[in-house]
Amino acid sequence: MKILMLLDHVFPPDVRVENEIESLAAAGFDVHIACFRRDGEKEFEKTKICTIHRRHISEFLKKSSVGALKFPFYFNFWIKFASELCEKEKFDVVHVHDLPLAKVGCKMRKSFGMRFVLDLHENWPVLLQLSQHTKSPLGKLLSSNKQWVRYEKKMCMEADRVVVVVEEAKRRITPFVSSPDKITVVSNTLNISQFDVVERKTVNSGPFKMLYVGGINYHRGIQYVIEAISILKKENIDVYFDLVGFGRYLPEIEKLIKERGVSDNVTVHGYKKYTDIADIYEAADVAVIPHIKSGHSDNTIPHKIFQYMYAGIPMLVSDCDPLVRIVNETHSGVEYSYDNPAELASLIKDFYADRNLLTQYIKQGRKAVEDKYNWTVDGRKLVNMYQKLETE
After folding, report:
1. Where would you tag: which of 130, 132, 161, 292 has the fewest CB atoms within 10 A of its CB?
2. pTM, full prediction
């Protein structure tokens, strides 16, 4: 079976997409991927596991994606690109990563008699609603949340299969499809073979350190962590926060750090690869996932949670449904109300006073990843879905 994946950004990197391709290629599927092209990159590249087709896109067309449901420029670019590939390569399946390009997948299905797999990494309509660029006057004009909600429902109904990342997302979209059997949960779990980390067996000594790795946007909730650190500092609790990542909200976070007088307690590292921050992982007493609870965060799961679990780092997670479910099931951390810095500060204070309280969480998370929450398990689910689709 020959698969064309559509991805509306550059590739690589993308951990989830790379894991999916690796599993499908190992199972004998011929995977091609269409994506954007950076300056200096090859338009056509054949790797050990897939074939990459790249095309340059202008900044205007790229930015027009937010208004794609009202203005056709973005879809026209992708329909032309994908159609040329389908005419040349004769694919069996079009696999669309995330909601925006679903219309293109649907068009390929009808024009070329292909199967259509829609891979929903997150709740896209709510993500757009939360994003800063859709809150400006122009953003509101270009992007209608009601329109995106209707679009998602229609595309889920049109797809032959829908892939989601958590059970909560499956429950959310089940009313949009003809049968729950069309939906497969393939989570953002860890590819253990590609994550080299020292196994932690005991609590750390020295300064008490917190860790966050990921995007820095308003809905990530980092601002509440800064407020919690401010509370602790006033109580003369010496905690330190390693903030690794980048995003549009970083200037606001840096401003808040100064305003709250916690510059000595917070280190902003910017974007780093794991290989460059392995020592920060090893030094962390706890990792925090402070995402604001919303229709988005209640229907997706960050890849980092499985990294923290496998590294044996106890977690403090906000009360988003999948985060709470996983840490409670695996006994790998503690939950708190996302918008309650005092509650978060109280938990940190308890662990600061007695680090041995963290011991119960260290081994549980790693075992859960080894047994269940790993890409070997989830990759098999994806392959099984395709094998069934092949026989229908």
Report:
1. 132
2. 0.94
